[in-house]
Amino acid sequence: MQPPPLPARDNPLAEYFLDNTGRLIHKWHHYFGIYHRHFERFRGRSPVVLEIGVSHGGSLQMWRHYFGKGARIIGVDIDPLCAAFAEEQIEVLIGDQADRGFLGELRRRFPRVDILIDDGGHTMAQQVATFEELYLHVHAEGVYLCEDLHTSYWPKWGGGLRRPGTFIELSKELIDRLHAWHFAGAAAESDEITRSTHSLHYYDSIFVVEKRPIAPPVHSRTGHPALPQ
Fold this sequence. Notes:
Blueprint: H1 12-19, H2 31-39, E1 48-52, H3 58-67, E2 72-77, E3 90-94, H4 100-109, E4 115-118, H5 124-134, E5 143-147, H6 167-178, H7 192-196, E6 197-203, E7 206-211
Parallel strand pairs: 1-2, 1-4, 2-3, 4-5
Antiparallel strand pairs: 5-7, 6-7
C-alpha cells in the first residue's frame, strides 16, 4: 500500500508546509488549496488574521510568512503554554472560545479582523459560540473559515448526523438567510447576515463564508422578445 500523496507544491502555503523546519504544523493535505483560494487576495495587504487554536504555534508562523510584512497574526488558545509562541507580528491570547464573555473581549480588543480561522477545540459549543459572537465582527469584506467540520458528526464532540445544534446544522440555516430576499421581502433587510454574506463554500471538513456588503438583488431585461408574450 502506497503512502498518501503529499500536497502539491502549487501554492505557497503547501510549499511552506513541506519545507517547514519551524514549529509543528498539523493539517489535512487538501486544506492548503482551500486556504489559498480564499486568502490569496489578502497577501501583502497587511490583514489582521485571528486564528483560534494555536497548538504548537506552527500555523501562526505559516500565516505570517504567507501574508507578509505588516500582517497582524493573533492566536487564541485555552492552553497557557501557548503564550510562549508570541513573537514578531504574532500575538497570543489565552482564553476559552466557548466563553462568550471572552469572545466579547476579543471584539473589543481587536476592532478589525479580516480573516477568522476557527481551528480550536472543534466541539459544537465552541464552534457555534464563536460563529455567533464573531462572524458579524469580521470585516465587511473579510473571510470566516471553520475547519474540521467532521466533528459535527462525532458524538464525542457533541455531534451526530442531522443532530440539532451542531455547527453543520447551523451552517445549513445560513443557506436560507443568504436567500432571504426571495421569501422574506422587506423583513430580510433587518437581517444582518443576509446583508453581509456574499457566498457560502463547503468542502470536506471546511466551511468558508465570504463577506461583502449585499444590497437586495435586482434583475432586468434587455433585447427584443423572440417568442409570444
